[in-house]
TrEMBL record:
PROSITE patterns: HTH_MARR_1 (PS01117), HTH_MARR_2 (PS50995). InterPro entries: HTH_MarR-typ, MarR/SlyA-like, Tscrpt_reg_MarR-type_CS, WH-like_DNA-bd_sf, WH_DNA-bd_sf. It comes from the Bacteria. Pfam families: MarR_2 (PF12802). The keyword rRNA-binding does not apply. This is MarR family winged helix-turn-helix transcriptional regulator.
Length: 140
């Protein structure tokens, strides 16, 4: 079996392709938001008041890394931390108004990127690919 036929190699190449397309399209549109930062914004937007550990769990990132991601989003003025009323030691996250606006402007671009990443596939093949990828990641 050649490396070109191995799942690990193909997944790595797909990740490289995905990252290149994402970066080119978002920077071309004037955004400086990584794909992980976008995923964090999406998780926070869908779950206002979530904590960093919750974001890490939702987007499958380790806690130390997500801490740095959140720090960058706070520094950019897109996310705010607040004291958790239920546990004064904990911090909850919310998008700022600028974060909401940025997310809304970025979302159509990110949706278009999804099609571009799998651009050589028909719509049916894209659906099958996504279903298989989800099945592969499903915990057993």
């Amino acid at each position: 079996m050649q490396a070109l036929d191995m799942a690990g190699h193909l997944i790595r190449r797909l990740h490289q392709h995905s990252t290149q397309v994402y970066t080119a399209r978002t920077r071309g549109a004037g955004f400086d938001i990584t794909s992980v930062q976008f995923a964090a914004l999406d998780a926070i937007r869908a779950n206002p008041g979530i904590d960093q550990a919750g974001v890490a769990g939702l987007i499958a990132y380790d806690r130390p890394t997500i801490g740095e991601v959140i720090n960058r989003l706070v520094a950019k003025g897109l996310v705010e931390r607040a004291v958790n009323d239920a546990d004064r030691r904990a911090r909850v996250l919310r998008l700022t108004p600028e974060g909401e606006t940025t997310f809304e402007r970025l979302l159509p671009i990110v949706r278009d990127i999804q099609t571009a990443i799998l651009g050589n596939l028909t719509p049916g093949e894209r659906s099958a690919f996504l279903a298989l990828a989800k099945d592969t990641l499903r915990e057993r």
